[in-house]
Design brief:
- This protein has 1 helix and no strands.
- It is mainly alpha-helical.
- The protein has one domain.
Length: about 45
């Protein structure tokens, strides 16, 4: 996440054990939850 001035102020990392699921499938499954978490963090940080 970046501040209004463009400075990086937060980041999110997702780590999972090995999975036979493709990256695209993981993004489809986890994307909405990760985006919601990012939005919540941004509301408190920015």
């Amino acid at each position: 996440m970046c501040s209004r001035s463009g400075e990086v102020v937060a980041a999110i990392n997702v780590a999972i054990p090995w999975s036979p699921v493709t990256m695209n499938e993981l993004a489809r499954r986890l994307g909405p939850t990760v985006q919601a978490a990012a939005n919540e963090i941004a509301a408190h940080v920015i």
